[in-house]
Amino acid sequence: MSDNAVDQGKRTWMIATGCAGAVGGVATAVPFVSTFSPSERAKAAGAAVEADISALKPGEKMTVEWRGKPVWVVRRTPEQLAALPKNDPLLADPKSERKAYPIPDYAKNASRSIKEEYLVVVGICTHLGCSPSDKFVAGPQASLPDDWNGGFLCPCHGSTFDMAGRVFKNKPAPDNLEVPPHMYLTDSKLLIGEDKKA
Ligand code: FES
What we know:
The chain is α+β, with helices and mostly antiparallel strands. Helices cover about 20% and strands about 20% of the residues. The chain is built from three helices and ten strands, in the order αβαβββαββββββ. It has helices at about 5-25, 40-45, 80-85, and strands at about 25, 50, 60-65, 70-75, 120, 135, 150-155, 160, 180-185, 190. The radius of gyration is 16 Å and the shape is globular. The structure holds FE2/S2 (inorganic) cluster. FE2/S2 (inorganic) cluster binds next to loops.
């Protein structure tokens, strides 16, 4: 990856995160690490983070920072869920069988999620690391096909992903968006970065 690509990815990541914050709020449980010792800092950098999803309304997305990466939590509407199977013939890896980002067992299903309403994915394009933009509204629009069912568009080189984070065929991104390890602590509280109780 060139430096330019890295910079571009970083910049887009920041813009996209800012936008998401305005809509759905930004949740992060990363503590204020500058007062920690080096070993505590290292631990905090890799620590799992909690996210309160109670305020997330259908059709909204929130961004949680985990290990310096944006993790998206999207509360999908019934219409968005119903449209997922329609995308299957158009996708590069509809069943997430590719191995670059192995999907956790609990997300090996049609909605790629534990609870089908909530999509949890790392918001970084699998091509060169830009952060895709939300394109949740279905229907014809700029840079998207007329039969668009909602999803994400990567502004860097045009890769598109559906509302389960699955990449469409013949796009530069080689893989679906990564599903990070995660689990529900309660109905409204997610733990991202860990998927089993210690
Ligand atoms: S970084 Fe190239 S399409 Fe997303």
